[in-house]
Amino acid sequence: MHKFKSRSAKNVIGLKLSGTLSRHEYQEIVPYLEEKIKKYGKIRLLIELDHWEGWGAYAAFNDMFFVIKHNFQIERVAFLLKSEADKRAVLLARPFTPWSRDNTRYFGPDESEAAWKWIGHGVLTPGNINLLDEEFDLKDKKTKTKKVRYGPKQNILIIGGGVAGMTLAALLQQRGFEPSIVEAHKESIETDRTLQIWPTAAGALKSLRLYKKILKASTIISSFEVYNSNGDFLHTYDNSQLEQEYGPVLLVPRKKLIKAVTKLLHPNLLRKGIAATKLKEIEEGVKVTFSDGTKGLYDCVVCADGVHSKMRELILGPQPIKYAGMIGWYFSVIPNFEFPGGVKGYRGKNGYIRLSKIDNKIYGFACVKSEDSKSENKHLDLLKSSFSNYPEIVKKILNLIENTHSIWNESFYQLESDVFVQGRIAFLGESAYRFLPTTMLGDSITLESAVTLANQLSCSDSKLVPKYFKTYERHQLFRIMGIQEHLMPKELQPFFQAESLANVSDFSKNLISEEAYQSFWKWFLEEGF
Fold first, then answer.
1. For residue 115, is pLDDT > 60?
2. 112, 139, 309, 493: least surrounded by Cβ within 10 Å?
């Protein structure tokens, strides 16, 4: 027998099944579901089983074709089980259930409200719904906390709402997780920083179905022209062969990437203006105390709060961060003159500046040598004076910067560490390992790492999290050790090592050869796929 639940609304459909589903009944159900799919694009099913005995032969055969036809249009399936027999039946037959099990969950007879809230999350009910801290044990017919939660049912906290944290959250949500995210800043930090994304990192964007959108918002670095501070041409680095073999190298505004990823997330997963102040690992998980006085217990915690990570220092103590003797600025302006296309760099004795046009804006990255890591506080005056003797086009662009609010500045710090995890706590992005901005690979490693960590958590359970975190750590160390090994040519080291960068006497005379450039990036891309 079958019966549609009166609580059904919009694309959320409640269906009660009992006994054996006959051919006649199946032919009544399918047109109704397909009508909802046609109207809403996707549907969510809450299927209540009450001593269900499975399909008749016709229904079983045709359910397979229904799922093949509508696999990507069945967004969520919740099973409300009344008995152990129902559990066995659903595991064998899985009625109306798509191939991916990421968005399929099971509830016991006393969890009807929890099932309806989960299936309607983002459609019928407001707010962030955390419903799977408890699961039903059919043997006891009581609600109790299970010792082990599998895959998406794990309770995960992400600390940090930047590129690393938000990308990981989106990847986990795509796999059926509902991670909690806290960001210490109450308001989003909108910066004009650009991210250089190599093809190995594009996998994260493709997985999230954002690649085409980000591609439109980016400029493709097919080549990179270099001039000295007098405007004399020095060299062109050609990415065309790498692009043909692996895909384009993108330069994208950071805030556009953050905005695109944030739109994918359920709005109440992220809490802004909240910092984690205390973490304590216990047998059941990680106890976290927040700045608003609330507390939580999580199966694992991912710290993605940047190179000056307070969480890393809290857990591991003072960190070996090296100052590289340089400070830098990111900025953007709307030009009132024609700017030639492509990416152009101008190098002088004490620093260099890179300029590129994306849509109607010119985005810049500039850096100069400075013994004082706090010189960045001088902001705009220091930026303009450092490049006052450069070609006219550089000075015209810098003169368009009206105030310090349109500048993002930072000192060049490098964090080299071989510790990416500590029990149930993992570090991601620059809180794990920070490459110098001059390397042009830190952003790509961050996106690669987010994919690796999301994959490990998808395979894990709440008991084995530390072991899967160790696998993530081994993968990251292998990647970084490979990068370090391929930096042996002396001409590459100044751009990757803090000590070497500080000793560069003239950046216009410290160019990487085309052979070394092509060799390194070909290896980097080949190993990253």
1. yes
2. 139
Ranges for all domains in the chain classified under CATH 3.30.750.24: 2-144
Phi-psi region of 440 (alpha: psi -120 to 50; beta: other; left: phi over 0): left
Three-state DSSP class for 270?
strand
Q: Does domain 156-188+257-321+415-494 correspond to CATH entry 3.40.50.300?
A: no
Most confident of the ranges 31-45, 115-129, 216-230, 430-444: 216-230
Q: Are 161 and 151 in contact (CB under 8 A)?
A: no
For 2-144, CATH gives 3.30.750.24
The token duo for 417 is 């560490």
Task: Tell me what percent of the chain is helix, strand and coil, each rounded to the nearest 5.
Answer: 40, 30, 30
Scan for tokens 């390992």, then name that residue: 433
Q: 10 Å Cβ neighbour count for 518?
A: 16
CA-based nearest residue to 194, from 239, 235, 163: 163
* Alpha carbons within 13 A on the beta-carbon side of 15: 25
